[in-house]
Write a structure and sequence with these properties.
- The chain is built from twelve helices and 15 strands.
- It is α/β, with parallel strands linked by helices and 338 residues long.
- The protein starts with a strand and ends with a helix.
């Protein structure tokens, strides 16, 4: 049987981060056995992060309003399904693809637009069906039961973990778009508590890596481990070596919850706010709100508050309730319905 084409329209670069790409890669892993995979990306996207051969770069001179024509030129709408993840995918953009006869899936953050998609996926626990306006045929896959993560993390979500009661090994990661230099501020704040024995810091580039490395010499009393370009298996190992985490309410938060660890989390861009509210409402994180203006002392204060907080094991248990590792089967069923 000839496989249909699964067309993945997504961008990933230093400005917008890698979260959109990681979500698309996650859903592709769930669906790839039934499709021929293609990626269609911007010229600024780091293509080395895409583990598939069929990659087309959108011409720089092509307007977003003309992308539907571009797709129709190269792909057959009757034998293709498109996945969109990005802020370019507004109502008018979707309408143009619908007029060309394409079926498509939209990975969403905001519920701001009217949707022409066949399927809308938003894995924030905050989202509810009545927040969306859409066509009568549109199906919704909302909440953490449709979590978009790589297979190794979903496997971890099925195992039961308990907190060891200690809070002296801190994991820090602010993703690939740390525009407010929060990584360095969190490192400074953690060291200033004089209670963190080990720091495990994921950095976005060599510049931040060098800055964190400088702290090794300045603060030999704290064991500082720095990681860059970390694969999923190594990421899981690093998280498991820690007993406390600081991370934004992004894809990273979902990954941490799969492992099960007390988490200090906030947001610094708009698309993290609904995820933040959802996990906070469920008691799955220690919430610190908008962290865009945080400094080292802000992080120090938050860490010290968590160190005297009761109910951390209950926090881990709530994380496990939210993400059970079964999203692959649920999403496969949703896609079959379209």
């Amino acid at each position: 049987m000839i496989k249909q084409d699964l067309l993945c329209r997504v961008n990933a670069d230093a400005n917008i981060g890698l979260g959109h790409l990681y979500r698309v890669l996650a859903i592709v892993e769930m669906l790839k056995s039934n499709f021929q995979i293609h990626f269609i990306v911007s010229s600024t996207t780091n293509k080395t992060l895409i583990p598939f051969d069929n990659i087309i770069t959108i011409p720089n001179e092509l307007y977003e309003a003309d992308e539907a024509d571009f797709f129709a030129k190269y792909y057959n709408s009757s034998s293709s399904v498109i996945i969109f993840d990005g802020y370019f995918c507004n109502t008018n953009y979707q309408r143009r693809f619908r007029e060309k006869g394409f079926k498509f899936i939209v990975i969403d953050d905001y519920a701001r637009d009217h949707f022409y998609a066949n399927l809308v996926v938003n894995h924030s626990p905050f989202m509810k069906p009545d927040m969306y306006t859409h066509e009568t045929y549109t199906k919704l896959a909302l909440g953490t039961q449709y979590t978009l993560l790589r297979p190794s993390f979903l496997k971890e979500a099925k195992s039961l973990n308990s907190h060891d009661g200690k809070l002296n090994k801190l994991f820090i990661c602010f993703g690939g778009a740390d525009t407010f230099n929060l990584t360095i501020k969190a490192v400074e704040g953690a060291i200033a508590t004089n209670k963190i024995k080990e720091l495990h810091v994921i950095v976005k580039d060599s510049i931040v890596e060098s800055e964190v490395e400088d702290y090794k010499n300045l603060h030999p009393q704290t064991k500082i481990n720095v990681y860059r370009q970390v694969g999923e298996d190594q990421m899981i190992k690093v998280i498991k070596d820690c007993n406390l985490a600081i991370a934004p309410s992004s894809t990273m938060l979902f990954e941490l919850c799969c492992i099960g660890i007390p988490i200090i989390s906030g947001y610094f861009v708009d698309n993290q706010s609904n995820i933040y509210k959802g996990f906070l409402n469920e008691g799955a994180i220690y919430g610190i709100g908008d962290i865009s203006k945080f400094d080292a002392s802000s992080f120090k204060a938050c860490i010290e508050k968590v160190m005297i907080l009761e109910g951390l094991q209950e926090m881990v248990e709530e994380q496990k309730k939210l993400i059970d590792g079964g999203s692959k089967e649920r999403l496969q069923k949703k896609v079959e319905e379209i």
